[in-house]
Amino acid sequence: MSWQSRTELMFGVERMPQLHQAHVMVVGLGGVGAYAVEMLCRAGVGEFTLVDGDTVNDTNRNRQLVALTSTVGQLKTDVLAARLRDINPDVKLHLYPEFLRDERTVELLKMAKYDYLS
C-alpha cells in the first residue's frame, strides 16, 4: 500500500500525477506557511519554492511548526526542508533563505512556472 493511498481515494489515482507535478511557492514559513506546506506535501504536491529569511526563535515555539528547542537558531527554510524530505524523499525543493523584497519578488516569480503562490 502506498503512503498516498488515502489521497488516491479522495482524488482518484488518475489525478495523482497532477499533484506530483504541481509546483507551489510559499513566502513566509511562520505561523501559517509551514503548516500549509506540510499538508500540501502530505497530499502529494511534488515541488515547492520556499522563501523565508528568518531563523527559528524561542518565542516561535508556541505557534510555529518549525519551532522546537532543537531548531532554535536554524533557518526556517532548512528546518522545513528536512521535515518535507522526511515525509516525501522525492519532493523537489528550492530554498531561498531571504526576506522577499521589491525587485527580488519579480525575479523569483519569473524563475519558474508556479501552479499556486501563497
Mean pLDDT over the residues:
96
Number of helices: 5
The name of the CATH architecture is 3-Layer(aba) Sandwich
| Main pleated sheet | 4 strands, parallel
Distance between the termini: 32 Å
Please give the radius of gyration in angstroms: 15 Å
Q: CATH superfamily, called what?
A: NAD(P)-binding Rossmann-like Domain
Structural class by SSE content: alpha/beta
- How many structural units, i.e. domains? 1
- CATH class descriptor: Alpha Beta
Number of strands: 4
In percent, how much strand structure appears in the residues?
A: 5-15%
Task: Write the element-wise H/E pattern from the N-terminal end onward.
Answer: HHEHEHEHE
Strand line-up of the largest beta sheet: 3-2-1-4
CATH topology name, in short, is Rossmann fold
List keywords for this structure.
14% strand, 4-stranded parallel sheet, Rossmann fold, 118 residues, globular, 4 strands, alpha/beta
Please provide a written account of the structure.
The chain is α/β, with parallel strands linked by helices and 118 residues long. The chain has a single domain (15-108), classed as 3-Layer(aba) Sandwich (Rossmann fold), CATH 3.40.50.720. The chain has five helices and four strands, in the order H-H-E-H-E-H-E-H-E. It has helices at residues 5-11, 16-21, 33-43, 76-87, 102-110, and strands at residues 23-27, 47-51, 92-96, 116-117. It has a four-stranded parallel beta sheet, with helices on one face. Strand 1, helix 3 and strand 2 (47-51) form a beta-alpha-beta unit. It starts with a helix and ends with a strand.
